[in-house]
Amino acid sequence: MDHLTELENKSIYIIRESYNQFDKIAALWSVGKDSTTLIWLCMKAFFGQVPFPVVYIDTSFHFQEMYDFRDYCVDRWDLDLIVARNDQALAAGMGPENKLECCTALKTQALKDCIAQYGFEALLLGIRRDEHGIRAKERYFSPRDQKFQWDYENQPPELWDQYSARADEETHIRVHPLLHWREVDIWRYIQREGLEVVPLYFAADGMRYRSLGCQSCCAPVASEAATVDEIIAEIETSSIAERAGRAQDKEDAYTMQKLRALGYM
Amino acid sequence: MIFGLGKTKRAVGIGLDGFPFSLAQELMDMGIMPNLRRLAQRGEMKRIRSVFPTVSGVAWSSFQTGRNPAQFGVFGFVELTPDMELAIPNGENLKCETMWHRFSDGGKEFAALGVPMTYPADRLDGFVASGFLAPSLNERAVSSPDVLKFLKEKDYEIDIDPAVAIRDIEQFKEDLMRVSKARWNTALSLLKDEERDWDMFFLHVMDTDRINHFLWKGRRADSDVEDDFFWNFYGWLDEQLGRLMGVLENDAELFICSDHGFCELKWEVQLNRWLKHQGYLKYDNDPKKGYKAVKPGSRALSLVPGRIHILHESRWDIGEVTDKEYEPLRKELMDKLRAIRHPDSDEVICKQVMKKEEVFEGPYLDRAPDIIIDPCNGYDLKAKLGVGHLFEKGPRTGMHTYEDALLLTGARLRDISKARNIMEVGRFTADRIL
Amino acid sequence: MQPESLSFVLVGHVDHGKSTLIGRLLHDTNSLPDGKMEEIQEAARAEGRELEFGYIVDHLREERERGVTIDTAQTFFSSDTRDYVIIDAPGHKQFIKNMITGASQAEAAVLICSAAEGVQEQTRRHAYVIHMLGLDQVLVLYNKMDMVDYSEERFREVRRELREFLARLGIRPTLEVPISASRGDNVATRSLNMPWYDGPTALTALDKFRKIPPATEKALRFPVQDVYHVDGVELTAGRVESGILRKGQTLRFMPGGRALAVKEIRQYLSEGLPQAEAGECVGLALDGDAPRRGRVGCPADDAPQPTRRFQATIFWLSPLPFEPDRGELTFKCATQEEPCRIAALRRRIDSGTLESLDAEDGRLMETEVGEVLLETDEPVVLESFYDVQELGRFVLLRGHDVVAGGIVTHTAGDAAPAHHETIS
């Protein structure tokens, strides 16, 4: 069995386990490459239908290409789409000009409200271990409390394919079927499956987007990769650190570390 | 010195860093601190205020000098030079004498164990061991080699490494207990030493501030499980007070004070991002550059906690704000700061927004931040640059408060008991001893 | 062409050099992002310390705490032949839960042991976990050879001690390499300091790990995961855990024993598959009502005897001890789930020393191992862990919490199971 097939089967097994264990479940879909791969894996797990809603958090400031792609997929895959939008905040004028409060109001709050409204016990998310440091500690089934907090030091053990699945009333479970995938695996899988993605991922005029969101908060990166093959080649050959390093004080790094730990600087 | 004969004017002080008056009451009511209760009943316990900006470095500098920050010239744990270099002031940067200098000159027998902002320690005629921000227990952290030798024998350590609390909370607890035990053992053996006859003995305990930051009332940033360690620690601390009472001939000469209060931290508020968003601050998103990332055209920036500097052309290399623009800009900023609210709770963030001249008085007023903010409980004012949110969650669950510091004075210390803030505690103490 | 990827768990006593080894591997295989090494060197210089390789990991870990990119709990690097995932297991005792979680996802194990300090408690405890999880590919690295003057004698001495312990567990190391992770000896490049050693470097030794092939050679086992209705067809969904499932074959779903023919094997967009192999998730159209979740499809002519009593070794994971009179446990193996109890605790073992402990009161504490007789309410389909891992490993739940992991050592409950069955 090749590597991608192995990844795929593991994900499908997890998706089916979560669907078996929770009545009220939904998948979070940003229309980005990862969560679109997730939806596709759900399609495969359930033989061509996604038997639960997919939630799209709409800040109303996304790229038009994302809305177009969303509607195209909903139509094509016959998805039960829930649009989570914080209309109240939008009516009150919340928007990118309030950039700092904007995400909390339009994303976090919108999702909270949506979970409360539909009573979801579990959400499928397309996160990967390699995308973000702290996610290395994630489990496939990860409880979140009402405040969305994650007690990562005190997680249940997860042995073999036995997932601790029950949520108390106060919590919902986040299920991460793509946890073991890497960015390059996603692109290789998109290539193998012939999946379509939002065209913004492909280079135009020497720029492309590596991740998608609100127009105001996304910046393209310099790239000539205009096809999936070229993106794979780009990821394989470059190992660009996603973030520049921290400032180092010349005098006393230890002191700085202490002050930093205490939040004094 | 009317009563200069003998040691009738002595005092033993314990500085419990960031130990709030309200928490003391709560702990006494819960029965966790019976010894503290006894002391409070025999003497007087009251709420006092801290200083602005409310951090230990400034507060203990006020205590040691009896002056306000515009007189000793330090306004926080970090300062910026005109060319945006970070500077970390320490004891040598204080512009006034401390009570320790005065005791030394006055021939008093004194000990100052672990007081922040005393590094590097001067070669005073007394027992001085520097506290917070002394990088390690070395020759420069003590008043004499004998002191160093004594402390090493006692396994004394300056402070825990607070970064451990973020990495490994269990290790943090272990470190805290180890350091605190050695601290109390050292202090008590000095007090028991019959060779010495102290005029003034002062022990500063950093450990209370540390536990309040990371485990405030048992709350951890990464877990909802309440951690009993917090309450157990204070129970243990009370036992140390009990030991201390056993050692002292007369606890009527004992005072306990804290330099600021504490409350639950709900959000860290990144004021520089607010300034950037409002168009007052421009910077590159390059954490390597530190404050050098600030770009020309900026008009204001913030330092922790709640210090706003207006980038006046006369003070800052890249400053462009003219005299004429200064007041209107300051007023505009102050109005806008007062209007910041948290989007979920709709709570106001800034309780008091003050001009520097309303808060400080002294020759170094021009170095002071132009605006001082006293935040509402729960909103800790931070100053990160870079990309991120205005409201963030950090690894800490407790934050400093201005209002809720503590002063407990034994029956013989009426002169000190009049103090209304940590600065006056220091001033009145020095006056008493000298 | 996608390169092969192999995951291994890195275990060993705290301070025996796990971080240093990871740092060294990342560095020597050029697996750090561009500019990262310079940045780390700069940071080390600023802090006035020599660049130690463990510092790379500390540095990355610190970044992780601040929510920045690269993770260390799972670290990726590549050799010339394939990609690796290192699953880093913290050496502290309290992290045994995380260590087991990590190790259960690994295909091989690297056990690191300081030649200076020798075999320590966690060395042994981790070895036990490796053994219990059935990881039979184990590379042992004897680290800190520079601190023992690259002494062959010392290497042999520590190796003898560890080999003895491993032998008691039935572990035969795939390879054993003396290294110095901090100096780089025998990690990615051959050391000139140990002319007496002529084996492979650690990196070459890793390349000798085999990918574990799916259990296609074993008897067919197909636990039912769920039943779906798709376009009017009832599809029995599950993953082939072992063996090969063929279209037209008759399966007996145990326990219960209904025999049903496989009319069709489906995956989405691949209907009418001729067969499905171990590891594949499929849906089956059967010629009868779909069996329910937890039933295990087996070849009709070669179905195992379901059992209610069996022997197992369990590793207690919960800080709350097992007490015989405290509550019911739930047994979970593949998709089977049954209430169960520990009918007898035959041996209680300290996983750090392998010594037997007093089992009189029937209690098991965290990190202790029990050889037990388990009894489920209804029969379940099991295999000895040594025959078919997929149906020989299980977890025990108390309430909703996983409190133990275990392996089936004998599917029969007693020394003479046949007699027992006939008598009852």
What can you tell me about this protein's structure?
- The complex is a heterotrimer of chains A (265), B (434) and C (424).
- Chain A is of the alpha/beta class and 265 residues long.
- Chain A has helices at residues 3-21, 33-45, 64-77, 87-91, 99-118, 183-193, 228-237, 253-261; strands spanning 25-28, 54-57, 81-84, 122-124, 141-144, 172-175, 207-208, 221-222.
- Chain A has a domain at 3-175: Rossmann fold (3-Layer(aba) Sandwich).
- In chain A, the strands form 2 sheets. In chain A, strands 3-2-1-4-6-5 form a 6-stranded mixed beta sheet. Chain A has a two-stranded antiparallel ribbon with strand order 7-8.
- Residues 239-251 of chain A have low confidence and may be disordered.
- With 434 residues, chain B is α/β, with parallel strands linked by helices.
- Chain B has 2 domains: 11-263 and 401-433, Alkaline Phosphatase, subunit A; 267-392, Gyrase A, domain 2.
- Chain C is an alpha+beta fold.
- Chain C has 3 domains: 5-207, Rossmann fold (3-Layer(aba) Sandwich); 222-302, Beta Barrel (Elongation Factor Tu (Ef-tu), domain 3), CATH 2.40.30.10; 307-423, Translation factors (Elongation Factor Tu (Ef-tu), domain 3), CATH 2.40.30.10.
- Chain C contains 8 helices and 21 strands.
- In chain C, the strands form 4 sheets. In chain C, strands 2-3-1-4-5-6 form a 6-stranded mixed beta sheet, sandwiched between helices. In chain C, strands 7-8-13-11-10-14 form a 6-stranded antiparallel barrel.
- In chain C, a hairpin with a 4-residue loop joins strand 2 (74-78) and strand 3 (83-88).
- The longest helix of chain C is centred in the middle third of the chain and has 18 residues, at 152-169.
- Residues 63-72 and 415-424 of chain C have low confidence and may be disordered.
Lay out the secondary structure.
The complex is a heterotrimer of chains A (265), B (434) and C (424).
Chain A: H1 3-21, E1 25-28, H2 33-45, E2 54-57, H3 64-77, E3 81-84, H4 87-91, H5 99-118, E4 122-124, E5 141-144, E6 172-175, H6 183-193, E7 207-208, E8 221-222, H7 228-237, H8 253-261
Parallel strand pairs in A: 1-2, 1-4, 2-3, 4-6
Antiparallel strand pairs in A: 5-6, 7-8
Chain B: E1 11-16, H1 21-29, H2 34-42, E2 44-48, H3 56-65, H4 69-72, E3 79-80, E4 86-87, H5 99-105, E5 110-115, E6 127-130, H6 145-153, H7 163-167, H8 169-192, E7 200-205, H9 207-214, H10 229-247, E8 254-257, E9 261-264, E10 267-270, H11 271-277, E11 300-303, E12 307-310, H12 323-338, E13 350-355, H13 356-359, E14 371-375, E15 379-382, E16 391-392, E17 398-401, E18 405-409, H14 414-417, H15 422-433
Parallel strand pairs in B: 1-7, 1-8, 5-6, 5-7, 10-15
Antiparallel strand pairs in B: 2-18, 3-4, 8-18, 9-17, 10-16, 11-12, 12-14, 13-14
Chain C: E1 5-12, H1 18-28, H2 36-46, H3 53-65, E2 74-78, E3 83-88, H4 96-103, E4 108-114, H5 121-132, E5 138-143, H6 152-169, E6 175-178, H7 202-207, E7 222-230, E8 233-239, E9 244-246, E10 250-254, E11 258-266, E12 275-277, E13 281-286, E14 296-299, E15 307-316, E16 329-333, E17 336-350, E18 356-357, E19 368-380, E20 393-398, E21 401-410, H8 417-423
Helix pairs in contact in C: 1-3, 5-6
